[in-house]
Amino acid sequence: MVNRRPRVLVFDSGVGALSIGSEIHQLLPAPDMLYIMDCNGFPYGGWDEAALTAHICQQLQTLCERLLPDLVVVACNSASTAVLPALRERLAVPVVGVVPAIKPAAATSRSGVIGLLATPGTVRRDYTERLINDFASHCTVIRVGSAALAPAVERLFWEGEENPAVWQQVMAEFQQHPKAERMDTVVLACTHFPLVQPELARVAPGLDWVDSGEAIARRVRQLLHEANWDLPASAGHQRALILGLREATPALCKRLDGLGIQQYQRYDRAEAVSATATN
Length: 279
Description:
Elements lengths: L6 E6 L3 H12 L4 E7 L10 H19 L3 E4 L2 H14 L4 E3 L4 H7 L4 E6 L1 H5 L1 H10 L4 E6 L3 H11 L4 H11 L10 E4 L8 H7 L4 E3 L2 H14 L11 E6 L6 H9 L4 E5 L4 E6 L2
Parallel strand pairs: 1-2, 1-3, 2-9, 3-4, 5-6, 5-7, 7-8, 9-10
Antiparallel strand pairs: 10-11
């Protein structure tokens, strides 16, 4: 047994790391959690695949050398579908990726019509097409690649700016499909999107919403168990690191506090350059 507390690093281009990390912490409170917000790279959904792979590999290699995590979660569908093979070649620790939850959505849909709400990058990835062919060939999959939703989530978390017009516009795009009235399940295939699932549900009530958070949390638990970690009963420490020039805003601090994350700091490749802690 490994008798120290494991450290899990959850990496995304912005606040999407919070949706996955909170699921991990809820299921498995013992690890120390590091939430990395790569503000310099946001949004990943519009990146060229080769450039995205190079950027994330460089960032995570540097972070792993300095922060020494025991497991890394790439909490981004657009990134995971592009960079996982290259990243696993470079890092010595296990790497868990996030992929669209098409399989469980197709298995639980009663009507056989499901929505896929993702970034444009995830919608067009070959990996996403293979998931649909492998697990949802018996379903109609209505795809909406939104470039507006993730930035709206960022503005909500950083500035407290509500964007009801964006929530409405995104859900209205599904209605252009001839089978939209039969759609009963929506896959939230960007880790930003579960953070505004209540807002989307108010616009489109009666739908089932599926994301990858719980599945990723179970995978992290499995990997730590296989590595013989002796997990303590007490909860680990949670810390958010902001890559880039942005300081934590009052709106973001309030959101982080609500998730039990009471330390957050701006972080560059050399050191933490500005720290804020509350309570």
